[in-house]
What does this fold into?
Amino acid sequence: MKSLRTDDAAAVLGDLGPLAQVIAAESIDEGFHRYRKSRDRDPIGHADHSDCTKANILYDRAVAVARELVGLAGRSEIRCKLSSNKRQTIILVRDCYAIRIKRTKENRGGLSTGVVTGSVRRMKRPPPVIYPGNGLLDFPGVVVQEDSVKSRLWLTATYDLDEAEESVANATIGVELPDAFLWRVPLPVVDAGVLANLPMLIADRVREYRKRRLA
It folds into this structure.
């Protein structure tokens, strides 16, 4: 049975495919755009929010986009589910990948932010190899339990904001360990060539997002 080394970024991303990477990239870009628009509509109210609340609002905007795009994909091999505490949206790709969207910060050593729970520790201990097509069976509508997907490779789609928090910086995807990344590469630039190879509904929706962002 075919196996992939989890430290081989090119092999992992090649097997993951472009659709999930584009969804992650666009979720970050469009999510931040929506966050900034709501901030600009109510700057006084936004200023009253704690840093934690602001971070939660930004995250909610990003994963809302992820759910929209995954829903448009109409493919059983990619779907969104909630974590067991219902606070995190996870993008599942087939039966061997799970993608979470997280912000990184320089004062955290470029690692993702958030509470380090037992589940997070398990996510950050990737197996040395994975076996595409030989994972666990999921049933529609069932909430994801982190323990039940421990055989998946967890990927972290990360981003930071510039100093003024006016734009996204360093959008990447990679395998995160407890104190470093096993590997991390930039998320793809979603240009016309990339859009041409996506499902039509997703490509059209991304074009709509981008038109609004340029308005």
Q: What stands out?
A: The CA atoms of residues 202 and 208 lie 10 Å apart.
